[in-house]
Design goal:
One of its GO terms (molecular function) is isomerase activity. The structure is a single chain. The protein is built from four helices and 18 strands. It is an alpha+beta fold. The protein has two domains: about 60 residues, no CATH class; about 210 residues, Fumarylacetoacetate hydrolase, domain 2. The strands form three sheets. Strands 1, 2, 3, 4, 5, 6, 7, 10, 11, 13 and 16 form an eleven-stranded mixed sheet that branches. Strands 8-18-17-14-15 form a five-stranded mixed sheet, with no helix packed on it. The longest helix is centred in the N-terminal third of the chain and has 20 residues. The chain is globular, with a radius of gyration of 19 Å.
Length: about 290
């Protein structure tokens, strides 16, 4: 099943794909989950209820995906845990020795945007870089999760573009600021439930394009720490909860490592596509002029 978070009547709402159509579940019938967390909590019963509703959805609930306003798949995750240096070729191009333990850092919900929303180049920097990735959305609470059972904790997967402001990323040993500018984390367009994909989303082609030119291309098999390993290792220290997001890392080809360097600028369009999961498209826009806080 493929689900998206959209704006409906000025409010976030859950939608589900029926072929090429997007069905606004708020208009498809009573008793349907209102958001991704409710869908996850509802388990198999929620999925069955949605499947039935899709078959009989009235015309008023049918949307053209090209005209829908997408929000981040999980609008405000409890935790967004990102993994750096998780493709050996990216570690090499970045000048880092490949770590033997995942390089983990956090993102905040205020950095997230949806499919088709603009990635924002901040006024403080012209070094906004792309990072195409897959994101695993947690569906079951877990602590000290064995690797053999880790994939049971995944609700589904989505595409992520982890826009990074490189000069701010490297102002200090911790990467937090450069990874958390507002409007730099594109997340969507849809959550694809884990049953529709290979276990751990393995063997999928990840491609990033800037203005139509391919700048990253890799297989998810190239991850140093696969999804099951990440869940098991992270849960040794951090309790994972439904709706938490693990952003699994980017392959080689990032702009900061190129000669000459290639950063995103206003007017550009960045696309991240993952086989079987979807196509995430975002134009690049300049941050609005600063205004005094009210």
């Amino acid at each position: 099943m493929r689900l998206a978070t959209i704006l409906s009547g000025g409010k976030p709402a859950l939608a589900a794909y029926r072929g090429a159509d997007l069905i606004d579940l708020a208009k498809a019938g009573p008793g349907l989950p209102g958001d991704i967390l409710a869908f996850i909590a509802g388990g198999d019963a929620a999925r069955a209820t949605i499947a039935k509703a899709l078959d009989v959805a009235p015309p008023s609930a049918v949307l053209d995906p090209e005209r829908a306003t997408f929000l981040p798949v999980v609008p405000r995750p409890g935790k967004i845990i990102c993994v750096g240096l998780n493709y050996a070729d990216h570690s090499a191009e970045s000048g880092f020795k490949q770590p033997d333990y995942p390089t983990l850092f956090g993102r905040f919900a205020t950095s997230l945007i949806g499919h088709k929303a603009p990635l924002i180049r901040p006024n403080l920097s012209d070094q906004l870089d792309y990072e195409g990735e897959i994101a695993a959305v947690i569906g079951r609470r877990g602590k000290h999760v064995p690797k053999a059972k880790a994939l049971d904790h995944v609700a589904g997967y989505a595409v992520f573009n982890e826009g990074s402001v490189r000069d701010y990323q490297f102002k200090a040993p911790q990467w937090t600021v450069g990874k958390n500018f507002d409007g730099t984390g594109a997340f969507g367009p849809a959550l694809v439930t884990a049953d529709e994909l290979p276990p751990g989303a393995r063997g999928l082609r990840l491609t990033t394009r800037l203005n139509g030119e391919t700048v990253q291309s890799a297989s998810t098999d190239d991850m140093v720490f696969d999804v099951a390993s990440l869940i098991s290792i992270i849960s040794e220290a951090i309790t994972l909860e439904p709706g938490d997001v693990i952003v699994t890392g980017t392959p080689a080809g990032v702009g900061v490592a190129r000669k000459p360097q290639l950063f995103m600028k206003p007017g550009d369009v960045c696309e991240v596509e993952v086989e079987g999961i979807g196509l995430l498209v975002n134009p690049i826009a300049q941050e609005a002029a600063e205004r005094a806080a009210a």
